[in-house]
Design goal:
Strand content: 15-25%
CATH class: Alpha Beta
Number of domains: 1
Structural class: alpha+beta
CATH topology: Ribosomal Protein S5, domain 2
CATH architecture: 2-Layer Sandwich
Order of helices and strands: EEEEHHEHH
Largest sheet: 5 strands, mixed
Radius of gyration: 18 Å
Strand order of the largest sheet: 1-2-5-3-4
Length: about 130
């Protein structure tokens, strides 16, 4: 099997995911996944598509991550892995990943700060007198 790649985004995080047949190693920016994501919840988020499709030990995954915070990065990697698995075998994995919602890009972004006020929606305190 040749190398398949996909892109995952969440908030301001961008994950380029490369999948190749292997033993189940996940390397993120040159570090092991358990070393990169210390929290077990973030490791769980990254492994969700692999656990759901039953391919946990079948593929070696290399990820290049840029931008965002840890939670956004983990969810970007999840989307990238799900898309890459669809590239590997569309008939086998697409329906289960789509039903779980792993192929949907979460489009929520931070709203920009407007000029003349302290935040995106926040206004300065009103004073009647």
């Amino acid at each position: 099997m040749e190398q398949k790649h996909a892109l995952g985004r969440r908030k301001s995080a961008v994950a380029r995911v490369y999948v190749v047949a292997g033993k189940g190693n996940i390397v993120i920016n040159g570090r092991e996944m358990t070393d990169y994501f210390k929290e077990e919840t973030l490791q769980y988020i990254v492994n969700q598509p692999l656990e759901l499709t039953g391919t946990a030990g079948q593929f070696d995954i290399k990820v290049t991550l840029v931008g965002g915070g840890t939670k956004g990065q983990a969810e970007a990697v999840r989307l990238g892995i799900a898309r890459a698995l669809c590239e590997v075998d569309k008939e086998a994995y697409r329906s289960t990943l789509k039903a779980a919602g792993f192929l949907t890009r979460d489009a929520r972004e931070v709203e920009r700060k407007k000029p003349g006020q302290p935040g995106a929606r926040r206004r300065f305190q009103f004073s009647k007198r």
